[in-house]
């Protein structure tokens, strides 16, 4: 299955990115190359293999429900381009 | 044409843990903005989320309470979307392998047979932050973000589309809320958003098997709003279909001020979440003995408690339902009933005076001045006929007002009744002696005189004799005189 320019558009929109027509053409080519490479994996019969959710052979890594303060409001906002009244300020969200 | 509504609910409950689901930040409500955050919940690079074990425990509680099958292995997944209140640009949730599935909750809608509502699945996920748009200090061109709530643990409970009316959906929500409050895993406050509900609504011609196109209803912040919004949406869809129109699959927002649901501006691609297992988090494995250990710690559930109140205390179904509405009220009643013989009397007082006082004064049962021990004392005094019903109410009110011990109040206000039968006998004898003419009139057939004599005895005892006791004793005495008289006469 080959990637089309519509799919590149769709993915770009989901990622909130915009590209020129030339760039999109380039992505179509590159995406298709990657997918062709991945297609190779489909040659293996994996019908008897459990899906791997994690490459670590671990389960149930948990911690107790104990509170710890980490950052103050000032520290939390220190690297924000803009803040107001202790809040992060972002461009207006409509809706 | 007749239509049948088909409704399913998606309910989010905020869990009452101390810390967030993947970091150790506090989940307390009402703190200064962005003061309960850390690199994990701020989505800073290079951090590793670690699952809060209490979230798993709470999920197990709810799974057991709703008869769900707990998956041996469940997986946390990333749900990808952009929104400023979600700094990582993905929400950690569960998708293909939810925590548990295939459960049920039984609901009782008045006038209908009990109904089993299917639970499709329950999964754990993290909450997003809060956006401010309307406050006065928000500039025209900005939105303000508080990330304190970001990462607060949630359980999402997805029901089967088993409801056929808004009433049924609402009843289910009430029941589900009662269960999570009983389990102590959520405070159940809809106004504050610790319990949130979205509804999927569609209608189809009656008898049609195929489902109609559904819309998703959001922004319902009370039980009333849920019921009204669903009713509104059912009606709207019926009107569209009646007029030959088509239902569009869209998200509708309920406006509680105007009582209308309006389509949200369609967000293109908003449903393309590209879920995939989160590589930062390892699978959750739930063993049989873990489930059994949690089951042993489970508190009694509302249905079980209601049945026990009926069978053990011998209470009517209605009383049992009212008294078990919240676990706190049920505990209060149980403590009262422990020390009172007449359980129905205890029930009447709790359902009547206690609930009324709580409502009138907007008080909580925890800080209610008439403690279970005090109410039991009052009822014991009543049961032993040491005070009258009127006095009991006076003592209750005074105890509520001052928090004083009921026995103290009885003493101070001289409300104790004469419980010594001899004293009552003496008073009756005196009254009969000094009102010989009236006694003769009574014996001669003037039944009305009884009331007068009764009043005289009550007066002689300064109203401190139990009226019923006096009445019985007086009647016995007069009957004896009557018998004497008729024997003399024959
Ligand atoms: Zn945090």
Keywords:
heterodimer, A: 95 residues, alpha+beta, two-stranded antiparallel sheet, 3 helices, B: 490 residues, Arc Repressor Mutant, subunit A, 9-stranded mixed beta sheet, 3-stranded antiparallel beta sheet, 15 helices, binds zinc ion
Please give a structural write-up.
- The complex is a heterodimer of chains A (95) and B (490).
- Chain A is α+β, with helices and mostly antiparallel strands and 95 residues long.
- Chain A has a domain at 5-42.
- Chain A is built from three helices and three strands, in the order ααβαββ.
- A two-stranded antiparallel ribbon of chain A has the order 2-3.
- Chain A is flat.
- In chain A, 6% of the residues are buried.
- The mean pLDDT of chain A is 90.
- Chain B is an alpha+beta fold and 490 residues long.
- Chain B folds into three domains: 3-291, no CATH class; 300-412, no CATH class; 421-489, Arc Repressor Mutant, subunit A (Orthogonal Bundle).
- Chain B contains 15 helices and 17 strands.
- Chain B has helices at residues 53-65, 166-183, 223-242, 288-296, 302-313, 317-323, 327-338, 343-360, 372-383, 389-402, 406-412, 421-434, 436-443, 449-460, 467-489; strands spanning 3-14, 51-52, 69-70, 73-74, 77-80, 90-93, 100-107, 115-126, 130-132, 142-146, 153-159, 195-205, 215-220, 251-255, 260-263, 276-277, 284-285.
- In chain B, a hairpin with a 7-residue loop joins strand 7 (100-107) and strand 8.
- The radius of gyration of chain B is 32 Å and the shape is elongated.
- The termini of chain B are far apart.
- At the A-B interface, helix 1, strand 1, helix 3 and strand 3 of A face strand 2, helix 1, strand 10 and strand 17 of B.
- Zinc ion binds at residues 20, 23, 25, 37-38, 40-41, 151 of chain B.
